[in-house]
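Internal tracking record. Fields below are filled automatically when a chain is submitted to the structure queue. Please do not edit lines marked as system-generated. If the sequence contains nonstandard residues, flag them in the REMARKS field before resubmitting.
Queue: standard
Priority: normal
Entity type: single polypeptide chain
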Amino acid sequence: MAYFLSKEELDKLQHAEREDLRSPIPTRIISNGEFDPLPQTEKQGQFEARIQELADTYGKKLGMDRRDFLRSSCGMAAAFLALNDVFGPVFTVDQAEAADPDVVLARAEGLKHQFIFDAQTHFVRDDFMHEEALGLRKFAGTHWNPSNELLDPDHQELWMVKFENYVKEIFVDSDTDVALLSGAPFDDPTWILVHNDQMVRARNIVNSISGARRMLSHAVLRPTQAGWEDEVDEAIEVHKPDAWKMYTIGDPFGTSNYPWRLDDEKLMYGTYEKMVKAGITNVAVHKGLLPLDFMQSRADTWQYATPWDVGKVAKDWPQLNFIIYHSACQPFLELPGPQLELFEQTGEIRWATDLAKIPEEFGVSNVYAELGTVFANCCVTHPRLAAGLVGTLIKGMGAEHVIWGSEAPFYGSPQWEIEAMRRLEIPEDIQRKHGFAPLGVADSMVKNAIFGLNSAKMFGLDLRTARGPISQDTFAQIRDEYHQSGGFYRNRSNAAYGFVQV
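SYSTEM-GENERATED OUTPUT FOLLOWS
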């Protein structure tokens, strides 16, 4: 199997969780293994220095050292202050939040009932035994708590990349209410991270323990690979997933022999008919996230990662919802300066703008953009680009067609991503120039729709009946106790899982 990242590339990287500064918001691009992370930019270096200054200043007044302050609620606020100081006013935050824990606590209490549905989460199956994958997961894997000396990142064991940490990061260390568990295909099926039946089993375990519908699950399809149509039938008849997951590029970690198109009538339309008949009508499709060297070396296949096939299939199959993961975006595969400059001048963001134009061009209303990795990296690469991305998607598709997803826990607990979205505002000059509407406060109608209401509608979650069980289930009780004890911040490692440029 060939990874996107070669051994030579990996040798130039280091563990993201080994960063000396445990910032609550990453200070450089972090890769989940699907792309080569760029070096820290000059402005990101300034952000890193500024957050240290603020941590020392505010931490001293609260009697905390730098690390303890950055793990506190005030430390999270200070990180957004630092972002604004370096990149300009993009995030809504007040200095009082960095200085007074009670101010942050009051804000958190006010957002306690905001519904958050994370449409892209992952973990690795228990019987996954490839040592090479552990080498990759050394960088991109999941750990229980790297700040604990028992969890030395050099001491790789299978339990470090399993289900338990997923539950903690998603349902205890973040405000996530409902999570959709996802997987990925590979040319070599022995490399599948989580099998379809295991995703469903995990879903059932979580929901059984919690006493509420906390987790949903995908079934991964592998079009053109041997036996894939039988897998569709098995999923429908036996596993009964909540949605489907597909990769038109084939193998997400390397060059693939199995690229395909969504609008291939001979290959796919019979399967879509089965989906409609089974009533499983939400189709998640991985798009974007290609490194530049892949585009150069595989000129015959890179286009399969673009949204070139979305418009026709959406028009032909209005009964299905097509959820395009990562917004088909490719903004972090070159230095952010030129990409932002292109957006500021033209209003275009490569591939994401193409996706945003599809509803009007094809007259469809069943195409959705999921934020995923692209939002996480835009936030730490250049917040103005993140604001431009969200504004582009909303303007072209409508806020009701933008879906929250974190790809946690690849980047640690998704809480920092949640806070970034809550605080994000499109700067006024970008609003005026590109005709974008403001996003509003943390729990505005727009943000509430993106965070959870859109996904709840698609997946048939009636919040009038679902919120009660979720607010009182086992995980809600654990999280409340965790908050009351201070553990939500005191025990948070601020570790980001993945790898970064040295």
